[in-house]
Write a structure and sequence with these properties.
heterodimer, A: alpha+beta, two-stranded antiparallel sheet, 6 strands, about 30% strand, B: mainly alpha, 14 helices, binds zinc ion
Chain lengths: ~110, ~300
């Protein structure tokens, strides 16, 4: 039974792949802002997209910052600690599976 | 009519149906453009489902032992009659409501239940995304009153299996609204989409398993709205599609938080307070997020 179930898992995962459920829509400013807007109390005001589309830095009306990253066909966001302005293109969030986050190099303030 | 042990396991019997319906739903998503799948997300959900059946089998003996122990002190001798199964089904669903509500309100139970909510997708595979650590969080304790009342453990296990099978069908975006009477009494795809959503309005709502009447009765019901489409997942969505991390991430976070707790009160709050509670920040609990949303709506 266990083996059969394991086969079922493989079959269905393979079918999802075959049916083409593996697209990652590009990370746009609008998607990034909407995703950051899901963070409680975060009102997006400006978005800085990285050139490679791997991350976005979203600035809130009150100056708070959040990073938005693609994950499959969805996005993941994290609010950044206040005052911890990212340096050198990566940020260490210290979270499992989210230690080093690539960030747009451009300084916040120049909105897109 | 009597239906006596050994009773079949409804979940095991339903597995072929699960597989067929997931395939059908995938095709429907492709053809209709309604709903969504991501192959790694679906694979993770399915792997978590498989793992949870293994975890369940590993702890079946101790759980059965506790059930048998409680059953010794039963108030009534409830026979294996059809009406008893009906009663058990309803009583078990009420117990499920309180288990489920607690699983969202107390972090200790949430650390186990969060697995079910950790996907940003809502499809039939999400239904199979089940916890591996229900035993650790002692969630089986919520069924003890049923044994004390006198429902035989075999009967309770059977109706609980039926409950789980029912809940599989409602994890879909392919069904909009069902007839009004059905939506009034039963938990439906629409009601359960609300339960899986992180929109502030929908947080900690619709805990029912089969019957939505418990939510209407106990003040936790929220209807789905066309102008507030559900966004699925959790407040801090997982940064990975790795099923192992989905299974344990909140326990790891809890242990980390406890290691940093400065006072016994803080430790108690972190373990048994609501998810999102921090000693120095109460703004991320479901109640606080909803309250901020309601204030904002009132101002607008
Ligand atoms: Zn839940
Ligand atoms: Zn669910």
């Amino acid at each position: 039974m266990l083996l059969l179930s394991a086969l079922g898992v493989l079959l269905l995962t393979g079918m999802a792949w075959l049916l083409g459920f593996r697209a990652s829509p590009p990370l746009t400013a609008a998607r990034a802002a909407e995703e950051a807007g899901r963070i409680p109390g975060f009102r997006p005001a400006g978005v800085h997209l990285s050139a490679d589309g791997r991350s976005a830095l979203v600035e809130a009306e009150d100056g708070a910052l959040a990073v938005v990253l693609p994950l499959g066909d969805r996005l993941v966001s994290r609010p950044l600690p206040r005052g911890a302005l990212p340096q050198g293109g990566t940020l260490d969030l210290g979270e499992p599976f989210l230690r080093r986050v690539p960030l747009p190099i451009r300084a916040p303030g120049s909105r897109q | 009519m009597t239906l006596s042990p050994p009773l079949p396991d409804p979940v095991q019997l339903a597995i072929p149906l699960f597989v067929a319906l997931v395939l059908l739903e995938m095709v429907a998503v492709r053809l209709r453009g309604v709903g969504a799948y991501e192959w790694r997300d679906a694979g993770a959900s399915l792997a978590l489902g498989l793992g949870s059946t293994v975890a369940g089998a590993l702890v079946a003996a101790p759980v059965a032992g506790v059930a048998a122990f409680a059953y010794q002190f039963r108030l009534f001798d409830i026979p294996f009659a059809w009406w008893a199964f009906l009663l058990a089904f309803v009583a078990d669903d009420l117990a499920y409501y309180w288990f489920h509500r607690t699983a969202h309100r107390v972090r200790w139970f949430w650390a186990s239940h969060v697995v079910h909510h950790s996907s940003q997708h809502y499809n039939l595979t999400t239904a199979l995304r089940q916890t591996w650590t229900g035993f650790v969080s002692l969630s089986f304790l919520f069924r003890l009153p049923l044994f004390l009342l006198g429902f035989p453990p075999e009967m309770v296990v059977f109706v609980a299996g039926l409950n789980l099978v029912y809940q599989f069908f409602i994890h879909t975006e392919q069904v909009g609204r069902l007839p009004r009477l059905v939506e009034a009494v039963l938990n439906t795809p629409s009601h359960h989409r609300v339960h899986h959503a992180t929109n502030p309005r929908y947080l900690d709502r619709n805990f029912g398993g089969v019957f939505i009447v418990w939510d209407r009765l106990f003040g936790t019901f929220e209807p789905e709205r066309a102008d507030d489409r559900p966004r699925y997942g959790i407040i801090r969505n997982l940064p990975t599609l790795n099923p192992l991390w989905a299974a344990v991430h909140e326990w790891v976070a809890l242990v980390r938080d406890l290691a940093r707790a400065r006072t016994p009160g803080a430790a108690l709050g972190l373990a048994f307070g609501p998810p999102g509670w921090k000693p120095d920040d109460r703004s991320l609990t479901a109640d606080a997020i909803r309250a901020a949303f309601v204030r904002e709506q009132a101002q607008a």
